[in-house]
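Field reference: sequence -> structure
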Amino acid sequence: MTPETQFPLTDMPVPLVFATHRIIRDCNSAFADLFGFHRQELIDRSFSRLYPGLADFVRTGELWSNHMAGGKIYYDERIMATAEGKRFWCKVNGRSRNLSDPFAEAIYCFQPLNRPLADAANRLTGRQRQILTMIAQGKTSADVADELKLSRRTVEAHRARIMRSAGLKNAAELVAWFSTEIE
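Structure field:
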C-alpha cells in the first residue's frame, strides 16, 4: 500500500475498534458515539462494559475464540449496551492478526441494526437469544450446535421449549415470531 491509501483508525467513517485480549486499545469516535462514551473512556478498558451482562461477554468470547482462529473473518449479531444501559442489536465483524491466538490482536467493526428490542424477546435467556439469532440467520440446529459447542439435542431442546411457550408449530413460525418480537 502506498501512504496515500492508508487511513488511521480515527478517520474511518464506521465504528471500528482495535483490541488486544478483549481490551480496547484504540477506537474511533464513531465507535465511542455508538455506545455513548467519549473515546478516552474506552481506551484500555475491557469490552465487558459494552455487554448487557458478564455472561453475554463470556459466551461471546468463547464463540469468537473458536471461530476467529487462524486469521478468519467472523461475524455475529448480538445485543450490546450503551453507557446508560440501553440495549440495542448490533452486527459485529472481526478479524485477528494473530493466527494462533484470535484475541492477541484483533480489529472489529460494529454496525447497529435497526431491530428494536421487545419485552418478549428480552425474557429469553442469553443462550436462547443466541440460538434464535443464529437460526434466524438460516443456520440449522446442527450448524448452531457446532458453532456453540453444544449437542444438537440441546439446541433442539431450546428451540422446542421456546416454540412450546410461544405456541409455535415450526421453525418458520419461530423465526417470524422472533423477528416480530424484536421489532
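Note: The longest strand covers residues 87-96.
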